[in-house]
Specification:
Blueprint (H helix, E strand, L loop, with lengths): L1 H34 L4 H4 L4 H13 L8 H10 L2 H15 L1 H8 L9 H13 L1 H9 L5 H10 L4 H33 L1
């Protein structure tokens, strides 16, 4: 019986340590990204890698806004918009892990907000489908969906897949809009 108690105690400590690490990582990443947000335009010169890095940084902040889709829009006019969308979708999905980790850590400071309380039951009921839809549309509330996904312990691979698909759809919309608007303006003049 003592062995069982030690095993449970060890699991609790491991879980607590992982949650603390996740919370500290989220805070650290958010503060760092927010401090370098003004330099995001420099990454555009790196092409598709730049699109990946821009969206990674823009989506790695939790709650605080960072530039991203405006640069993807512009890059779509210069590079192949499908390539920009794929790179941006991958970076965006990876960046959204910070929201997921914030929820997984159990340290969500948004639990009593009205919008979070509207999103949480939908994430609990529909899981990754809600993540896909909310990632595909430009909205300031996706971080809350990521936090909810972490809180309800959606498997990280399901979260990442849904997030990547949604982010890629959203980035494709902006990249192709940028590509066609550049052509439209050039034809106009």
């Amino acid at each position: 019986m003592s062995s069982s108690k030690n095993s449970n105690s060890s699991k609790l400590w491991t879980t607590a340590a992982l949650r603390i690490f996740a919370a500290l990582a989220v805070v650290g990443i958010t503060l760092y990204i927010y401090s370098v947000r003004d330099q995001a335009e420099k990454f555009a010169s790196y092409g598709y890698v730049g699109a990946f890095l821009i969206t990674l940084m823009a989506n790695a902040t939790v709650i605080l806004p960072a530039p991203g889709v405006a640069i993807i829009f512009a890059m779509g006019g210069v590079l192949n918009p499908l390539g920009v969308a794929l790179a941006g979708g991958a970076g965006g999905a990876l960046g959204e892990l910070t929201g997921y980790l914030a929820g997984y850590s159990g340290q969500a400071a948004v639990e009593n907000t009205k919008i979070y309380n509207r999103i949480l039951p939908r994430v609990q009921k529909y899981g990754a489908w809600v993540i896909l839809v909310l990632a595909a549309i430009p909205n300031p509330f996706f971080d809350l969906a990521g936090i909810a996904a972490g809180m309800v312990k959606i498997p990280v691979w399901k979260f990442m897949l849904a997030c990547w698909m949604g982010q890629t759809i959203k980035m494709a919309l902006f990249a192709f809009a940028g590509a066609y608007s550049v052509n439209w303006v050039a034809d106009f003049f």
